[in-house]
Amino acid sequence: MNLENKIVLITGAKGGLGTFVTQAFLDAGAKVAGTSRSIADTDFPNPNFFAIAAELNAEGARAVASKAIAKWGRIDVLVHLVGGFTGGPTVAETSDADLAKMFDMNFLAAFQILKAVIPGMRAQGSGRILAIAARAGLDPVATLGVYSASKAALISLVRTVALENKDKGIGANAVLPGTMDTPANRKAMPDADPSKWVQPQQVAALLVHLASDQASSISGAVIPIYGGDA
What we know:
Layout: E1 7-11, H1 18-27, E2 31-36, E3 49-53, H2 58-72, E4 77-80, H3 96-124, E5 127-132, H4 145-165, E6 170-177, H5 183-188, H6 200-211, E7 222-225
Parallel strand pairs: 1-2, 1-4, 2-3, 4-5, 5-6, 6-7
Helix pairs in contact: 1-6, 2-3, 3-4
């Protein structure tokens, strides 16, 4: 897959999934602006990588988009990986802090970066938006109420963006991975069977494909990648 002419902004560019995704886009030839709370150019020693350390609140998201455009001239693709997980209590037992945390991480961060990026994409008449949601956003799980709800809100947001911007050639899709085989998940679930989990490299490869011209007609899709738990 050749993305040589693509300028890609990746949020959550470091971490269990982000490292694989960022490297996959660089390997495909894209120029990448990668943002995370703590990130540096040296994290991906490649002349096509530009690090932007930021929080994705309203001001931070606008700054990220501005810096990416100042560096590379435009943004062709937004790959939004930022998210978080919490679970355990029932809805009735969930704290206000956990409610706020899940919607801040899984919905509001996406909302702010979309607001920051979409106007430029509309002005140039093209763009691809890809967001990582979760299976729980479609199929709620008991004791994961606010996590499931925040991911459901993200899915709805992405599909709405696809509808609102199809007139300008902008596509938007949500990818729903199952449990991914990351060190953090192995540590958190030592008794699980990781052979059934999704490999981060597979999610990265899917995102690269969806960003390519070969997938230009795919928009408004909610794409599962569930591994052995399908």
